[in-house]
């Protein structure tokens, strides 16, 4: 069990990264030209509000002091107020986490359900028509722009077949899943293209590996060679790829939420950018970054579980 | 080792693989050359001015006069598509080249010198990678204001990270290779070893990555324009064309279909070229 | 020979990926008797591994096909049966083990499971029964605590134990024949002796027939009953071991035997060696004094401080001009680290290295400048020691230019250097990838000679080469030493080569020098038990000088 010790000390190692995230988000907003108080509160802010924010964030003091005020506020869960929605950024973001989280989860599950069978078929029929088809489709799939793919899916599944809703987010869990069908399919199609390419490559390699040869030399049939040796050895690189792509995946949700009008963090981010609601931009970016760090940490745990050699 | 290597075969080696990578190479290069030619000769091949609004032909489907139809302003979609090639190729090119140069130099330096320099770069990279790529891009563009220039600046600020990581990892391996140690033991200067012996051998992986990165940059650039934060109307660009067609997607499908297809085909070209390069250079991601 | 259990008749294997198809196994006929060990000898590319893979039906590429001939086992032709039937041959009738147990064992599966897998599949055994069987087999191949070790993963074991695990997996379904493909090549000599000992032991106890593929005639001489020699896909000679070694019929066999390093060098009497040792009292070219080298091996503030690995622990050594010193030791003994530290390539933790009187620690700049200009290194892996993008000419030109050779003289010097290492001038225009291992190594030696070195350090520079090429390179070193009065530090794990080339030798163990002295003296009367074990474990080509596997690792007394 000593291999899992990192679960306890890794969060400490992540502190510098979290610190860096706070520095970057801080700098991002301070880089905006103009009076920071007006930038943060919008042009129609009252003089009292401006005075209050000047004091709260120490806007008249040197930049490094301002950063400490920022950190102090952050420690109290204080991320400022949205100028557009007139509520605390943290509260606002909290209400938007669920749809995004659901979207990411469903997308990942869907893409695994697509990628694993496809790569298995391709790798086991390497060099045959099925393999070529999978390779061409997955290579092409990587280049599908999510915003466009979403529209094409809408035309087909919503307009032609009238199967799924065009936009929005449901109320009860089933309704929500039904609303998320097309958005998550959009992301899953792109993501599974990336995963399939990687997993197929890893499987082809593992099928030719010494490990597989040794298993065959012991008289193991291809099925056992594949399920007991090839698949377990191909999973680790793919999990790592999934973890690396998690940032890219979240980027995808930002676009897809905009297309399907899902009230998640991505849509919030885009709206905030257009309405110059910088406190919200800052808050969403920070939450997204922390989520990425957390997901990568989870991927580490999975990797250690799957591969006894890895020590962290 | 001395005799010709007759005992070891990789099952995929041989004719079909050779053909495969050359087929990818020719199709990939063909697609790319096609788009480059179209971009260069856009004024010659485009039947209309891409921003010319023809009030009498709004939202007409594909016809002889307008092979890809017209949009709600009565602009010819084929001409817009052709002129859009210029912008989207530029996005892929500029969006890749600065990150490539910055990342390669920084990655080489970090990997070669190691120690504190390396530690600092690696921490910066960790922090930048903690942000979802598109989110950080959008945040930077939000500050700099919408537009292509902001996009390129954001790309240069964020995109170098993957190249730096890739090259650094390669340099770390090559630094301990026997020929690098031989070079050190022969007294060659650090710059010579770094740029003559290590970098040329380390860069193959990045060159292959350039192609898959071009796909990502193209998709991101188009996405940012689609969201309204990149290229501004009335300029013709594929991402924004999809956005402009969105309100009419149920009635005038041609406005959205063709620009998206163009992106898919161009991206496919880059991917094929990357695969072929990887095969030929013996690099696998 | 007893009645054959396996008969290969006129087997032909061709590679169909090119036109015309290339013949890789050319009408080979061979019998394996019951309970005998057949040694299949040949250099890389001779087809010996491919032959065995054809028998197993495990050809590594779809472009490879058995085009003619038969492989008879129990009255069945293995080349004719379908793949379902073949499953019952592999593992049950014929087991196979490989050169590199690290890559052939599944890294993410417990070793016990890998042994039990075959029992469960072939014999339909229950999980519990397969487990108890696997534990019994693990014990049989020498796992001291099989109950517990069943649940360990391959990376938790040493190379020798991994090979034992491979053997256990191969024997799990009690095959009649075991094919061992270079099973000890990746192992240290003492471990090799133990594994060979185990194989012979298993043969005696289980009545196993063994096909032992190897490039090492010494291994064959020590373990096999009969020998078959292959070259370029053809069986050049086969016969009873003693007869074949004593009276080889084919010229190639004679060359192989002649290249084997354990034969005492012929016609060289010991006087010049003595003389060389006498003349050395002039002042050392290289002096190493109480040298320590340490490496950081991770560790952080969270896992409990900085961890270091002490690779070299207090080594002292003097090298006189014109002397050839062999440094031997098993993997992990610190011999390569020592070499790199001498050249200033590794940081020294403490102690002194002085080259030609200049101390590396005290005057680092001056000493390094001297070292870089007057020493050179030759590496183990000849292909990776050359920049893949440079032609041999580019490589040499760069060194010559750097050392201030006038440009006009460079082409002439390049030709001279190529002549010295016996490479044709056309090699100046070739890149490493288009050259054989031996040719690459010659180019590497030419690069070392380009600096006109006073000291050359050769780090395992023949370990990756075939025996006949090994001999050529060792001969080249002997010739250069003679012609150029080179001082040579020759690092090797192969004791026999050191014996033939070096006047003095140093034995290292776990970072320390345990024994040192004139080579013939150390070989004749080793002072340390460890050295004696090491020497005894070297498989001699003379079957009457049996190798002795050390019963257990015997660490040397304090140096």
UniProtKB/TrEMBL annotation, chain A:
Keywords: Cell membrane, Membrane, Transmembrane, Transmembrane helix, Transport
ABC transmembrane type-1 domain sequence ranges: 97-299
GO biological process, one term: transmembrane transport
Record's subcellular location: Cell membrane
Main location: membrane
Membrane topology reported for the UniProt record: Multi-pass membrane protein
Gene Ontology CC: plasma membrane
Transmembrane parts of this sequence: 12-32, 100-121, 133-157, 177-195, 241-263, 283-306
InterPro entries: BPD_transp_1_N (IPR045621), MetI-like (IPR000515), MetI-like_sf (IPR035906)
Recorded family membership: Belongs to the binding-protein-dependent transport system permease family.
Protein name as catalogued: ABC transporter permease
Originating organism: Pseudohoeflea suaedae
Automatic annotation (TrEMBL), chain B:
Domain ABC transmembrane type-1 residue range list: 85-274
Database matches in Pfam families: BPD_transp_1, OppC_N
InterPro entries: BP-dependent_transpt_permease (IPR050366), MetI-like (IPR000515), MetI-like_sf (IPR035906), OppC_N (IPR025966)
Keywords per UniProt: Cell membrane, Membrane, Peptide transport, Protein transport, Transmembrane, Transmembrane helix, Transport
GO CC terms of this entry: plasma membrane
Residues annotated as transmembrane: 25-46, 91-117, 124-144, 150-167, 198-231, 251-273
Gene Ontology process terms (BP): peptide transport; protein transport; transmembrane transport
Entries under SUPFAM superfamilies matching the protein: MetI-like
Family of this protein: Belongs to the binding-protein-dependent transport system permease family.
Name this polypeptide is given: ABC transporter permease
Source organism of this protein record: Pseudohoeflea suaedae
TrEMBL record, chain C:
All copies of domain ABC transporter, residue ranges: 6-257, 286-535
Chief place where the protein resides: membrane
CC annotations in GO: plasma membrane
Keywords in alphabetical order: ATP-binding, Cell inner membrane, Cell membrane, Membrane, Nucleotide-binding, Translocase, Transport
Gene Ontology molecular-function annotations: ATP binding; ATP hydrolysis activity
GO process terms (BP): peptide transport; transmembrane transport
Cross-referenced Pfam families: ABC_tran (PF00005), oligo_HPY (PF08352)
Location within or outside the cell: Cell inner membrane
SMART domains: AAA
The keyword Membrane is assigned to this record: yes
Keyword DNA repair on entry: no
Topological relation to the membrane, as annotated: Peripheral membrane protein
PANTHER family with a match to the protein in the record: ATPASE AAA-TYPE CORE DOMAIN-CONTAINING PROTEIN, OLIGOPEPTIDE TRANSPORT ATP-BINDING PROTEIN APPD
Similarity-based family: Belongs to the ABC transporter superfamily.
NCBIfam families (UniProt xref): PRK10419.1 (NF007739), PRK11308.1 (NF008453)
Name the UniProt record assigns to this protein: ABC transporter ATP-binding protein
């Amino acid at each position: 069990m000593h291999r899992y010790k990192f679960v306890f000390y890794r969060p400490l190692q992540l502190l510098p990264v979290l610190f860096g995230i706070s520095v970057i988000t801080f700098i991002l907003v301070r880089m905006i030209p103009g009076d920071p108080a007006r930038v943060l509160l919008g042009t129609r802010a009252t003089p009292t509000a401006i005075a209050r924010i000047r004091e709260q964030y120490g806007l008249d003091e040197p930049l490094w002091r301002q950063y400490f005020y920022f950190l102090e506020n952050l420690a109290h869960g204080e991320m400022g107020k949205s100028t557009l929605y007139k509520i605390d950024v943290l509260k606002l973001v909290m209400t938007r986490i669920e749809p995004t989280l659901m979207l990411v989860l469903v997308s990942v599950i869907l893409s695994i359900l697509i990628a694993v069978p496809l790569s298995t078929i391709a790798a086991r029929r390497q060099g045959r028509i099925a393999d070529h088809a999978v390779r061409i489709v997955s290579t092409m799939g990587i280049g599908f722009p999510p915003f466009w793919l979403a529209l094409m899916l809408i035309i087909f599944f919503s307009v032609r077949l009238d199967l799924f809703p065009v936009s929005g987010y449901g109320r009860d869990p089933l309704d929500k899943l039904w609303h998320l069908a097309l958005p998550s399919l959009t992301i899953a199609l792109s993501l599974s293209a990336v995963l399939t390419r990687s997993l197929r490559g890893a499987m082809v390699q593992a099928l030719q590996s010494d490990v597989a040869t040794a298993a065959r030399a012991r008289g193991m049939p291809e099925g056992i060679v594949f399920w007991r040796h090839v698949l377990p050895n191909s999973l680790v690189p793919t999990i790592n790829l999934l973890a690396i792509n998690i940032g890219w995946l979240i980027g995808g949700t930002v676009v897809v939420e905009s297309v399907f009008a899902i009230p998640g963090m991505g849509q919030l981010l885009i709206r905030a950018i257009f309405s110059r609601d910088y406190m919200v931009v800052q808050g969403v970016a920070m939450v997204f970054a922390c989520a990425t760090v957390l997901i990568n940490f989870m991927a580490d745990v999975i990797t250690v579980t799957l591969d006894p050699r890895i020590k962290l | 080792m001395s005799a010709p290597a007759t005992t070891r075969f990789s099952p995929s080696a041989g004719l079909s693989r050779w053909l495969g990578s050359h087929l990818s190479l020719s199709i990939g290069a063909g697609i790319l050359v096609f788009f480059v030619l179209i971009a260069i000769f856009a004024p010659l091949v485009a039947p209309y001015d891409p921003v010319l609004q023809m009030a009498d032909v709004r939202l007409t489907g594909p016809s002889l006069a307008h092979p890809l139809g017209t949009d709600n302003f009565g602009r010819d979609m084929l001409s817009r598509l052709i002129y859009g090639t210029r912008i989207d190729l530029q996005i892929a090119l500029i969006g890749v080249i600065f990150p490539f140069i910055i990342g390669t130099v920084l990655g080489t330096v970090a990997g070669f010198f190691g120690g504190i320099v390396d530690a600092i770069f690696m921490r910066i990279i960790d922090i930048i990678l903690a942000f979802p790529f598109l989110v950080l891009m959008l945040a930077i563009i939000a500050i700099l204001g919408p537009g292509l220039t902001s996009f390129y600046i954001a790309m240069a600020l964020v995109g170098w990270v993957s190249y730096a990581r890739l090259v650094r990892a390669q340099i770390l391996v090559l630094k301990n290779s026997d020929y690098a140690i031989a070079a050190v033991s022969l007294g060659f200067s650090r710059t010579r070893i770094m740029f003559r012996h290590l970098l040329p051998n380390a860069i193959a992986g990045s060159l292959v990555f350039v192609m898959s990165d071009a796909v990502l940059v193209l998709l991101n650039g188009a996405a940012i324009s689609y969201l309204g934060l990149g290229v501004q109307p009335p300029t013709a660009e594929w991402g924004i064309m999809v956005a402009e067609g969105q309100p009419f997607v149920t009635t005038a499908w041609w406005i959205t279909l063709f620009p998206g297809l163009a992106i898919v085909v161009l991206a496919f070209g880059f991917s094929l070229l990357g695969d072929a390069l990887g095969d030929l250079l013996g690099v696998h991601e | 020979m007893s009645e054959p259990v396996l008969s290969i008749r006129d087997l032909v294997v061709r590679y169909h990926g090119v036109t015309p198809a290339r013949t890789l196994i050319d009408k080979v006929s061979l019998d394996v008797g019951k309970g005998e060990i057949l040694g299949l000898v040949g250099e890389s590319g001779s087809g010996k591994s491919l032959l065995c893979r054809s028998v197993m039906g495990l050809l590594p590429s779809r472009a490879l096909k058995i085009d003619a001939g038969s492989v008879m086992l129990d009255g069945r032709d293995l080349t004719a049966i379908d793949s379902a039937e073949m499953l019952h041959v592999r593992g049950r009738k014929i087991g196979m083990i490989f050169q590199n147990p690290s890559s052939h064992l599944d890294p993410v599966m417990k070793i016990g499971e890998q042994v039990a897998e075959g029992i469960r599949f072939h014999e339909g055994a229950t999980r519990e029964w397969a487990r108890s069987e696997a534990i019994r087999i693990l014990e049989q191949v020498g796992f001291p605590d099989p109950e517990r070790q069943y649940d360990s993963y391959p990376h938790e074991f040493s190379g020798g134990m991994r090979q034992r695990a491979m053997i256990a997996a191969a024997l799990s379904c009690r095959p009649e024949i075991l094919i061992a493909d270079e099973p000890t090549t990746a192992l240290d000599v003492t471990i090799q002796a133990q594994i060979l000992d185990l194989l012979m032991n298993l043969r005696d106890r289980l009545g196993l027939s063994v096909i032992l593929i190897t490039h090492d005639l010494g291994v064959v001489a020590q373990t096999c009953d009969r020998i078959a020699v292959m070259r370029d896909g053809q069986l050049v000679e086969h016969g009873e071991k003693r007869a074949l070694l004593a009276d080889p019929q084919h010229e190639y066999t004679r060359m192989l035997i002649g290249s084997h390093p354990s034969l005492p060098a012929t016609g060289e009497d010991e006087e010049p060696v003595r003389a060389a040792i006498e003349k050395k009292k002039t002042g050392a070219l290289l002096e190493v004094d109480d040298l320590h080298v340490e490496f950081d091996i991770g560790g952080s503030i969270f896992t409990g401080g900085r961890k270091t690995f002490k690779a070299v622990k207090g080594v002292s050594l003097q090298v006189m001009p014109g002397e050839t010193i062999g440094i031997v030791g098993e993997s992990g003994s610190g011999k390569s680290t020592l070499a790199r530290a001498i050249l200033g390539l590794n940081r020294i933790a403490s102690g002194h290295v002085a080259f030609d009187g200049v101390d590396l620690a005290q005057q680092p700049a001056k000493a390094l400048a001297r070292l870089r200009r007057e020493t050179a290194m030759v590496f183990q892996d000849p292909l990776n020691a050359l920049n893949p993008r440079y032609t041999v000419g580019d490589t040499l030109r760069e060194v010559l230019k750097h050392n201030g050779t006038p440009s006009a003289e460079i082409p002439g010097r390049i030709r001279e250097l190529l002549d010295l290492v016996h490479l044709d001038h056309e090699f100046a225009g070739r890149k490493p990838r288009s050259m054989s291992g031996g040719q690459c190594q010659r180019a590497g030696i030419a690069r070392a000679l380009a600096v006109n070195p006073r000291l050359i350090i050769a780090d395992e520079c023949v370990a990756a080469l075939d025996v006949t090429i090994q001999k050529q390179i060792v001969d080249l070193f002997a010739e250069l030493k003679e012609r150029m009065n080179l001082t040579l530090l020759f690092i090797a794990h192969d004791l026999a080569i050191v014996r033939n080339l070096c006047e003095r030798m140093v034995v290292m163990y776990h970072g320390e020098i345990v024994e040192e002295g004139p080579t013939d003296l150390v070989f004749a009367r080793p002072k340390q038990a460890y050295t004696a074990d090491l020497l005894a474990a070297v498989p001699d080509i003379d079957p009457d000088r049996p190798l002795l596997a050390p019963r257990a690792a015997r660490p040397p007394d304090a140096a």
